[in-house]
Design a protein that fits this description.
CATH topology: Glycosyltransferase
Shape: globular
CATH architecture: Alpha/alpha barrel
Oligomer: single chain
Structural class: mainly alpha
Order of helices and strands: HHHHHHEHHEEHHHEEHHHHEE
Radius of gyration: 21 Å
Number of strands: 7
Distance between the termini: 54 Å
């Protein structure tokens, strides 16, 4: 079946200017029209429901996880605008990639996907549950149960032997990343734990979230300044841990912890809530210090857009990194909902970014970002001529068109609608007790017949774990040698 856009949506798009996207940020319909044009251009890259292709997949050189992130953007697009044009194709993609085991481990990805790859698809399912996105038929995987299945499997992979805890990047020992504990994998686990705790009311998920935060702090992946470093390698023989990711601080690492911390703030009270507020504020401070332009407060990808040198040349974002700041926008918007006191700080950033992003959407049909590293050449833009969006938002269209650029711009534009009450937005993400319809399965993803309880049957968090995290912190504090941190477990 070939990709088709709903007739009513297409007619509205064709009626717009073919030279640029005009948007009045204070006019809800104007914002929705701009978002519709950008979403149309993004989905024109999608080939997953062409005859002979696999639902949920983007064409080369885009990776599987990015497709999962893209459909997450489309879930929120429905939620924010009320546009149902893409519900069928979005649901088909997510359900197909859930796989036979209903855990986002489909046969076409089972040997190559990592914890963060699976995690991005799972975040999309979590968004669907929180947005009260239309549920699949009862005989198909359900949004909440999918999230619980992956969360249970991630919890079972918690690795105390190396670096004192955390998840490895790789799921399998034969994969690249088996010796790396990266912040995005652990950040997604933290994020899902916080959101499941709120959605289900089960505090055990929140305990896992707290444990993950404490571990990230214990090896200084979350610094005293609330920068979030990319990760730490370890020696698989000696288990020596090296926090060696250098200056790489990416917007999505801060964003995924920011949203999770905001959810933990939302479900906490008293002293505990104050602790999470301090963390939310610290992460927002790190965002402002590195990921906003100094004067105009427009979101940027710090490492790619600040002139850092790569063998004498400015560092350029690869095909993955070109998507990161869109996720930061997604998580900033959500933070302003579940931690409402942050709205006055965050909203001006989103509005400034939206105006700047849409101004770059002037590129022609055929525009494509250049190849960076070994990422391959991205296919040319196939949307409406004159509406391809650029990557950098501090200049005119820079030629860097692609799925990432479209998804980033879509996020910037549509999240200005978060607090307007349009579309399907109510007062924020729903819960099982208030507005949620998605069905769960706490034991999903558990393959051991003796472990029927899912989360409850996994390794308990004990006082020894909490004390252990403190010991790891102490060891790190006294083990700084020549600017590098070494930890022996």
């Amino acid at each position: 079946m070939r990709w088709n856009v709903a007739v009513c949506g297409l007619m509205g798009l064709l009626a717009q200017s073919a030279t640029a996207i005009t948007m009045d940020i204070d006019d809800t319909q104007s914002v929705k029209d701009a978002a519709a044009t950008i979403a149309y251009g993004m989905l024109k890259y999608y080939t997953g429901n062409n005859t002979g292709d696999t639902p949920g997949n983007l064409p080369d050189p885009y990776y599987w996880w990015e497709a999962g992130a893209m459909f997450g953007a489309m879930v929120d697009y429905w939620w924010l605008t009320g546009d149902t044009s893409y519900v069928e194709v979005t649901t088909q993609a997510i359900v197909h990639q859930a796989g036979d085991a209903r855990d986002f481990n489909p046969a076409n990805q089972s040997r190559t996907s990592s914890n963060d790859d699976v995690g991005f698809w799972t975040i999309t399912a979590m968004m669907a549950a929180e947005d009260a996105y239309p549920d699949p038929p009862e005989d198909q995987p359900q949004w909440l149960a999918l999230v619980q299945a992956v969360f249970n499997q991630m919890a079972s992979r918690w690795d105390d032997l190396n670096c004192g805890g955390g998840l490895r990047w790789a799921i399998n020992d034969f994969q690249t990343g088996k010796d790396y504990k990266n912040s995005i994998s652990n950040g997604i686990f933290f994020n899902l734990g916080a959101r499941l705790a709120r959605f289900t009311g089960n505090s055990s998920y929140g305990e896992w979230a707290s444990r993950t935060w404490d571990w990230e702090r214990s090896i200084n992946l979350i610094t005293d300044e609330y920068d979030v470093k990319d990760g730490a390698h370890f020696d698989v023989t000696t288990h020596v841990c090296r926090n060696d990711s250098g200056p790489h601080v990416w917007s999505y690492n801060i964003g995924v912890f920011l949203q999770g911390a905001a959810f933990m703030y939302n479900i906490s009270t008293g002293t505990e809530q104050e602790t999470w507020k301090t963390r939310v504020d610290g992460l927002l401070g790190a965002v402002e210090a590195k990921f906003l332009t100094n004067d105009t407060k427009i979101i940027k990808e710090w490492y790619c857009e600040s002139g850092f040198s790569n063998n004498g040349h400015p560092y350029q974002c690869n095909i993955d990194q070109q998507t990161f700041k869109g996720y930061l926008l997604r998580w900033l918007s959500s933070t302003s909902q579940v931690a409402p006191y942050t709205y006055e700080r965050i909203n001006p950033w989103i509005r400034a970014t939206a105006a700047a992003a849409v101004a770059t959407c002037t590129g022609p049909v055929g525009a494509a970002a250049p190849q960076v590293d070994s990422g391959g050449i991205q296919p040319g833009f196939k949307g409406i001529d004159g509406t391809a969006c650029g990557f950098k938002w501090t200049e005119t269209f820079d030629g860097w068109a692609g799925v990432g650029a479209q998804m980033n711009a879509l996020s910037a534009v549509m999240y200005t609608l978060t607090h307007t009450g349009v579309g399907n937005v109510t007062k924020g993400p729903v819960t099982a007790a208030q507005g949620g319809t998605s069905k769960g399965d706490p034991g999903a993803g558990v393959t051991d017949p003796a472990s029927k309880g899912g989360l409850a049957s996994l390794k308990a968090i004990t006082m020894a774990d909490r004390v252990g995290a403190g010991i790891v912190t102490a060891i790190l504090a006294i083990s700084i040698v020549g600017g590098s941190v070494f930890l022996t477990i």
